[in-house]
């Protein structure tokens, strides 16, 4: 195989960016020339579009791969006569609400421009910005529910922030039209894991070249037009073929040059898609990698981006090697579970959740106060998220001191505009402080009494107090222990009793029932 002689020098040659020579590798898809390869692919894309009435959904992150794919689709539609462009091409991008703000702004402007240009050119292209449901957002789960910062073995964020919004949209298209074709910028050269995933999809039975069944979403196919392209191929195409909706590919290159060379965050539709936390197009809160190299590089390389420093500091604070001191010794449901005879720690404690909220609001306030004009209204957390966090604290966690408005006012210097809840709370702020003093620093005891009072208050005016005794019993079980050491010791004894009785008893939570109907109480 010979190497194509095509080479392109990209990037504006000024004092901030150096020209980048992009040479095609031996595995290039452009061995017979870039123009010929692109023309063939555009023709293939146009033919596929005309074969049926199945709508298309293009995954667009604003990065190089998804931009290249969208350009190919756009060029294909431009070659088709007006009367034959019958079906809609939906362009979707998933905004996790914690995206790198530089990239989020870039993608947002790009969506606006491509939407306006598509209308002007009469192309059936509809851009859609997808966001997670408020109950699935990053801060609602971390600050509200107390989920610890994501880790590779507890990657709770990807499903909620990325997979659900995109899959929900795709399923809605499938429900309306019976099926859909998902057009993605996935490439075999991205990684060995990506190549293996694509090979598995092909083995499942390809419809034709670059068109495969979607193993995770029924009634949908995946079209991957640039699957054989190398990284150099992508940049060569973007630098030599003008962006058809008028956005600057050279500015995109500058964005890449300002950060690391890890790649982009693809449209995530299943859990096999690798995390994009180490790329410039990942979430600024991501703790799935050792460090956020892209944001660090942006701040270091460009003085105009130093305003992001509070974000990097907060991200690094979240990335604790050992955060057990910040977390409850009980799981989310109040139970104590052991691993190697030690408790598996659960959600963040109330004090930690308060601290994370305070730090987040302080970072937002600092950026608004000292940042450039274009970030004076930056929103690191939305009002809807704040109110959902407040609801979780007061209703689900029985923290009826309702601390969120006070934290908000202390961190921002502004009044909290949410609804007044004092009439619906079991005790006022002063009474809560007295209760805490009476508990003499015993957190577990304080939380148990507080929950019992809250449960009683909620059921007081009910005609039928259904669930009252169950709720009271649950509160007592959660607050039964003296402290974490007492809970661990009791859990170990219970585990031993269960093991001893395993041959002749059935275990049910809190009790052992022997086959001869004699009951032996197990230590809770």
Automatic annotation (TrEMBL):
It comes from Geodermatophilus dictyosporus. Residues 481-508 form a coiled coil. NCBIfam families: DNA_S_dndC, PRK06850.1. It comes from the Bacteria. This is DNA sulfur modification protein DndC. The lineage of its organism: Bacteria, Bacillati, Actinomycetota, Actinomycetes, Geodermatophilales. It holds the Pfam family PAPS_reduct. Keywords: Coiled coil. The keyword Coiled coil applies. One of its GO terms (molecular function) is catalytic activity. Residues 57-244 form the Phosphoadenosine phosphosulphate reductase domain. PANTHER family: PHOSPHOADENOSINE PHOSPHOSULFATE REDUCTASE (PTHR43196:SF2), SULFATE ADENYLYLTRANSFERASE SUBUNIT 2 (PTHR43196).
